[in-house]
Amino acid sequence: MAQVTHNPPEGAAADWTIPQDWYRYTPQEHAMWDHLFARQAAMLPGRVVPEFMAGLDILRMTRPGIPDFAELSERLMQATGWQVVAVPGLVPDHVFFDHLANRRFVAGRFIRTPEQIDYLEEPDIFHDVFGHVPLLAHPVFADYMQAYGAGGLRASGLGAIERLARLYWYTVEFGLIRHDDGLRLFGAGIVSSYGESIFALDDPSPNRLGFDLRRLMRTRYRIDDYQQTYFVIDSFEDLLRQTAETDFAPIYAELADQADLDTATIVTEDRIYNRGTQAYAHAKAGT
Ligand code: HBI
Ligand code: FE
């Protein structure tokens, strides 16, 4: 991830928010959103957790064009007390955590260009809003996201941001979930990417391992390619139960002298849904 400075950029408020200026989007930018939306909406049913598709309906995101954050936030506020605010790009960790702890999801307002359609450095509005926002309409996941923000503010003081960032990465960004007879996608980094929505579920290459908080917090991740390991949660309720009530300080202390695990490693305690072939070569991945 690009490094962020610690003063809000020109034109941003002290909390790094900026106006979305929805009226300034061009027809080409709306068309880019519609293209990306149509591609994912056609391939996700049956692959993504059903609550994600329900969120698209609850928030009326199936309407064409880039969503107007004011309208989106009105519906989201009614559903779970969350709102979506625009920021220039990545914000400092403590700013990010503070927004989440106050049920404000920070989203980029720019959309990728045709040249960037399958890879871009920073999350754009399609990653942030299509990827992250639908599940914020789900009460349990909404509570988990707020608990994560509160946990982040606590972790900042404990020098445990790196461990906690792995929890976000392997659930909110790249999480899988058990469903009936199989696995389903829910991580925003996956569901906003055509290629990874297929790879994460169907490809024999990556490991798919049962969620284990301590083990996950020791596991490194890659930021510019498909994951070599995906973690599978049993349910959003279970994820919330394992994280919301838990003060992570003892866990950080317990992990302090345990070495990190590389992205593709499997350990004996792992619940293995798929032992990956790791055949996928490192390449610029789709977002
Ligand atoms: N800023 N805008 C934005 N979006 C993110 O997802 C984000 C961020 N800053 C920090 C961050 N994510 C992660 O490193 C946190 O888990 C710490
Ligand atoms: Fe994201």
TrEMBL record:
EC top class named in words: oxidoreductase
Reactions accelerated catalytically: (6R)-L-erythro-5,6,7,8-tetrahydrobiopterin + L-phenylalanine + O2 = (4aS,6R)-4a-hydroxy-L-erythro-5,6,7,8-tetrahydrobiopterin + L-tyrosine
One Pfam family it belongs to: Biopterin_H
UniProt pathway: Amino-acid degradation; L-phenylalanine degradation; acetoacetate and fumarate from L-phenylalanine: step 1/6
Record-listed Fe cation binding positions: H127, H132, E173
Record-annotated Biopterin-dependent aromatic amino acid hydroxylase family profile domain positions: 1-287
Protein known as: Phenylalanine-4-hydroxylase
GO molecular-function terms, A-Z: iron ion binding; phenylalanine 4-monooxygenase activity
Keywords from the named record: Iron, Metal-binding, Monooxygenase, Oxidoreductase, Phenylalanine catabolism
Originating species: Croceibacterium mercuriale
Highest rank taxon of the organism: Bacteria
Entry's EC annotation: 1.14.16.1
Family under the similarity heading: Belongs to the biopterin-dependent aromatic amino acid hydroxylase family.
Cofactor requirements of the protein: Fe(2+)
Gene Ontology BP annotations: L-phenylalanine catabolic process
